[in-house]
Amino acid sequence: MKIEIDIAKILRDNNNFYILTHKSPDGDTLGSAAALCLALQKMGKNSKILCSDEIPKKYEFLFEHVKNQNFEPGYIISVDVADTQLLGENLSCYADRVDLCIDHHLMNQQFARISYVESGFAATAEIIYEIINALGVTIDADIANCIYTGISTDTGCFRHSNATSHSYRVAADMIDRGAKAFEINKIMFDTKSRAKLSLEKIALESLEFFCGNKCAMITLTNDEIMRSGARSSDFDGLSAIPRQIEGVLIGVFIKEEQTGMFKVSIRTDAAIDASEICANFNGGGHRCAAGCTICGDLADVKKGIILQIERYMRDAEV
To answer: Residues 108, 85: contact at Cβ < 8 Å?
Structure first.
């Protein structure tokens, strides 16, 4: 609790906050940013959220009551950002100016002047919850919706192994404080666009198995993505598909970001460290969910990933 108190003092002593989120924003980075922004604004401080990419429509409700304030930054915070490269091109100008980094990724690069990284939490939103409590700000329904969204999305609606008793306790508290859990879960997990269904169909057609069917892989190329008409939010959840197949311990999703550059997402069984596999390609993340970026043609990228997975499984005797 002492760290949260120290961070709370920093926030009380400063003003004019820019809160930076990561590119290709998800529910945790946006929920954490919105919750913190709302709390700071309730304290009478200027606070603004910045993101390199367009905010997916399904997350717009998080910002419904965030005030639009214009000011020059006096203190810069990043939330759920493990590396400055994840800020994206439009926020790269702040890469060397981050005063406080709040994150839960074990592989955080400690790029800020002050880093508060708690890898034992399933979501950065759980850390934000502790900080807001330390600030003495009352968590209302708007903030509760933000925190619940962050936890729910980063735990796969509490289905992933990273969900802890703390995750459940915080989520329950948010429901008690007015979070619309049913509506949020429906939007995040039970509603799909036609473009997303098209993406899933294409991805499943690419499905391949490796390592005695213990590894499953799906891929999407630029051409396939363009034909589907998908937006960034339509990719949410695709990385989980291969891992959901019975008997599969390692699921791989390879998506072409631009010609010759591929984003690789790996989801694994609790006994396998996805971040260790991705570290071979200068990537990282969590034990059961990690990623990396690899340049080359698709065939070589697939070959390189499978080679490292085979090596890992051989060494770990999986």
So the answer is: no
CA distances from 162 to 85, 144, 211, 309, 310 (A): 24, 20, 25, 22, 25
Amino acid at 115: S
In the beta sheet, which residues pair with residue 316?
none
Other beta carbons within 10 Å of 291? 20
Residue-by-residue pLDDT tens, the chain, 318 positions? 568 889 999 999 999 999 999 999 999 999 999 999 999 999 999 999 999 999 999 999 999 999 999 999 999 999 999 999 999 999 999 999 999 999 999 889 999 999 999 999 999 999 999 999 999 999 999 999 999 999 999 999 999 889 999 999 999 999 999 999 999 999 999 998 898 999 999 999 999 999 999 999 999 999 999 888 888 778 888 999 999 999 999 999 999 998 999 999 999 998 999 999 999 999 988 899 999 999 999 999 999 999 999 999 999 887
Q: Token pair for residue 55?
A: 């905010």
> What pairing do the DSSP bridges indicate for beta strands 17-20 and 47-50?
parallel
Position of tokens 């071979």? 280
- Of 121, 118, 151, 114, residue with least CA distance to 35: 151
CA 130 – CA 145 distance, rounded (Å)? 15
Joined together, the tokens standing for residue 213 give 């069917």
Phi, psi of 42 (to 5 degrees): -65, -25
Distance between CA atoms of residues 318 and 249, nearest Å = 9
Amino acid (1-letter code) at residue 65: H
Q: Which residues contact 101 (CB under 8 A, 6 or more apart)?
A: 77, 78, 81, 108, 110, 111, 112, 114, 115, 116, 117
**Rounded (5°) CA angle 111-275-25:** 60
Longest dimension (CA), the chain: 59
Residues of the chain by 3-state class (helix, strand, coil), percent to 5: 45, 20, 35
- Cα–Cα distance between 282 and 280 in angstroms, integer? 6
